[in-house]
Specification:
Blueprint (H helix, E strand, L loop, with lengths): L7 E4 L9 H22 L3 H19 L14 H17 L5 H17 L8 H13 L3 E4 L4 H9 L12 E3 L9 H10 L7 E5 L2 H9 L3 E5 L13 E3 L9
The protein binds magnesium ion.
Length: about 250
């Protein structure tokens, strides 16, 4: 059996397990195209009602602040007009690359529906599928650490081109544990997974995240994937495929 120089793996998603383009080329357009239909079909759903109320408050706040042209959501409109106004606001927010709670909450619901219906499938690099299988055989736990919410991470890995990968993942961390560019976050994660930091290898495409993990004592690998932003000079080990994590 291969003796690997680590006992646990911590993985970033975007630019590491999954193309950076997945979010902008697949997820965002999916939400944009489906939002009108989704709202029409789910207008009476109390959670959707809550999102619309959030969206209305956000639109008012935006109009009173930095975005005087923010499309507003009427309070006493007929269903069609309400949906039309909400769609205009959501498209406007997406064009401006906003990350408001109201937008994220609605997008999350649209993606959840899409994954459940099989019309949305998550992209994961083929070498990641293989690596997850091998780690499972070797009893090396693999964890995710992403700025996307844990719920979103589970949706993604639950609905990939190779099916449900959640049985091959030992746990999930998001920014509720701490920012990804803070060494303390990696110390906390090591503690939570009962590993010494030096026994954990963190794989990411983001140099600042790699530096933070290394400061915490973790081993690091910087993923070089097609479409990733070019990096300045650094002294972290790089990889182009997860196969490299099985060589020492
Ligand atoms: Mg990344």
């Amino acid at each position: 059996m291969t003796q690997l120089p680590y006992r646990a793996v911590l993985l970033d998603i975007e630019g590491t397990t999954t193309p950076v383009t997945f979010v902008y080329d697949v997820l965002f357009p999916y939400a944009r195209e489906r939002v009108a239909e989704f709202l029409k079909n789910n207008l009476e759903n109390p959670e959707v009602q809550r999102d619309l109320e959030l969206l209305r408050e956000q639109a008012q706040e935006d109009a009173a602040g930095d975005f005087p042209t923010a499309p507003q959501i009427p309070t006493d409109a007929a269903a069609d007009a309400l949906v039309e106004a909400a769609v205009a606001n959501i498209h406007w927010q997406m064009d401006a690359d906003r990350k408001t709670t109201a937008l994220k909450s609605l997008q999350g619901k649209i993606w959840k529906d899409g994954y459940a219906a099989g019309t949305l499938v998550a992209s994961v690099y083929p070498d990641v599928f293989n690596a997850l299988r091998r780690w499972q055989e070797l009893e090396i736990p693999a964890y995710i650490y992403s700025s996307g919410s844990i719920a979103a991470q589970k949706l993604l890995f639950g609905h990939t081109e190779e099916g449900d990968l959640r049985p091959q993942l030992a746990g999930y961390f998001d920014t509720t544990t701490g920012p990804k560019k803070n060494a303390q976050s990696y110390l906390d994660i090591a503690h939570l997974i009962h590993q010494a930091p030096e026994d954990v290898v963190f794989v990411t495409d983001n140099l600042d995240e790699a530096i933070a993990a290394a400061d915490a004592g973790m081993k690091t690998r910087v993923a070089l994937r097609p479409g990733n932003a070019p990096l300045p000079d650094h002294d972290h080990t790089t990889l182009t495929t997860f196969d490299a994590l099985f060589e020492d």
